[in-house]
Each structure stands twice: as C-alpha cells, then as structure tokens.
Design a protein that fits this description.
Layout: E1 8-10, H1 11-18, H2 22-31, E2 38-39, E3 45-48, H3 49-64, H4 72-80, H5 83-96
Antiparallel strand pairs: 1-3, 2-3
C-alpha cells in the first residue's frame, strides 16, 4: 500500500485558487476561518492542497444553502442603510437635534 504525500501550495497558488489577496488570507487565518499553513522553512508557509480545496467546496456549499458568511450580513445591512456616510450623517443630525 502506498500513501500519497499531500501536495503543498505556496501562497501565490493559494491566492490564485481562492481569489483572495494575501491580506485576506492573513485576516481569515487570524479569525480562524481559513486552513492553517505548514511552514516548509522558517519564513515560507504552504497549505495542504486538499484542505484549501475543501475550504473552497465549503464556500460553494454555503452559497448553495444560502448561508451568509460572517461579516457579510453587516456589510449587506450597511448598504441597505445607505453606507457609512449616510449612517454618519444620520448620527450627526440626531446629535445636533
């Protein structure tokens, strides 16, 4: 029996496959909502390909099940209310009254 060695993806490839920027990946790592990397040396992270693919598949499944990602609900609500500027204007009008 031969076990397959997991394929590791460098950050550029992870960005390419997910469509996320390096900053977005870092933010999701900090929030615990993205697969953790393995370090192939002191400064170079890499991700297990199957974990990244599973993350992508989960995003697709969430979309198909109408699951709103964390943070997206707040963004949708802010847009519904007219965005940040409109909210700031409303607060100023309320405090001036």
């Amino acid at each position: 029996m031969t076990d397959q060695i997991p394929r590791l993806l460098r950050k550029a490839e992870v960005c390419n496959r997910t469509g996320l920027s390096e900053r977005a990946i870092s933010d999701r790592l900090a929030a615990g909502s993205f697969p953790k990397p393995v370090f192939i040396d002191a400064r170079n992270p890499a991700w297990v390909e199957s974990e990244v693919l599973a993350w992508i598949q989960q995003r697709i499944a969430d979309r198909d099940n109408d699951v709103v990602p964390p943070g997206r609900a707040a963004l949708i609500e802010a847009r519904r209310l007219g965005g940040r500027k409109a909210q700031a204007n409303r607060r100023m009008k309320l405090s001036a009254a």
